[in-house]
Amino acid sequence: MSTFTKPSHIGRKISRIRELRDMKQEALAQALGTSQQTISALENSEEIDDEKLKQIAKALGVSVEALKNFSDEAAINYFNNFYDNSNGTNFGTNNNCTFNPLDKLIEAYEENKKLYERLVQAEKIKWSI
């Protein structure tokens, strides 16, 4: 019996990453300066040359390594770890606010008030000349 493993299907990985990025084949084709049919053919390919892979990775906003090593399981694990819900939020555990947002709002209001008063004063000077 052979222990031959099935080679990684790079086209399927490109397709999954494109779908996860909410990108249509037409958009990827436009980014690569090619046709939708060419993208469809690429996504059905088991192997793609490295130069083309670099262009595709750049258009998808990922690294070539991310393309080559992509798996649905790894993506699920990434999002499960990223959205750790242990403290009741969807932003992980390091989200302690170091300022009072209401204080910042009042500061912005006061600054706005000062700017408005300077503007009114400048208009008064302009029209008095």
UniProtKB/TrEMBL annotation:
Residues 14-67 form the HTH cro/C1-type domain. It comes from the Bacteria. CDD domains: HTH_XRE. Keywords: DNA-binding. The keyword DNA-binding applies. GO terms for molecular function: DNA binding. Gene3D superfamilies: lambda repressor-like DNA-binding domains (1.10.260.40). The keyword Kinase does not apply. Coiled coil: none annotated. InterPro entries: Cro/C1-type_HTH, Lambda_DNA-bd_dom_sf. PANTHER family: DNA-BIDING PHAGE PROTEIN, TRACRIPTIONAL REGULATORY PROTEIN-RELATED-RELATED. This is Transcriptional regulator, XRE family. It comes from Flavobacterium johnsoniae (strain ATCC 17061 / DSM 2064 / JCM 8514 / BCRC 14874 / CCUG 350202 / NBRC 14942 / NCIMB 11054 / UW101) (Cytophaga johnsonae).
